[in-house]
Write a structure and sequence with these properties.
Length: 124
Amino acid sequence: MKYNNQFPILPFIAIVAMSVFVLDAISTPAFAIQPKQVDEIETMLQRVERNLETASAVTAVAKQQAEALVEEKVEEKKAMEAKVELMEMVCEVYAVPVPASVEELEADRVADSVRVANMQKINK
């Protein structure tokens, strides 16, 4: 096959390809493929439903943790009450009564001196 220089083939093929491309672009409408119709209200309701499910799950977990915390605090309170009772008993043992009058103070001093004298007799 002999190539004729008067009619170059490559520019001819390029012009034909470009004209086919342009005709295709012109003849095809811009929105030939219609997007799927989305119901916005339905989408919003689905989102709300997902949010409600998530919120109910979070609420359930929070309720479980709150119950566990309450149980822990009740046990802690019982332990503290037991410690307080023990400390009150210790305070009662070591408490020194305050005399109401001078006569009681003198009687306590005499009783202490008698106890000291008795202890000295026992230790001899």
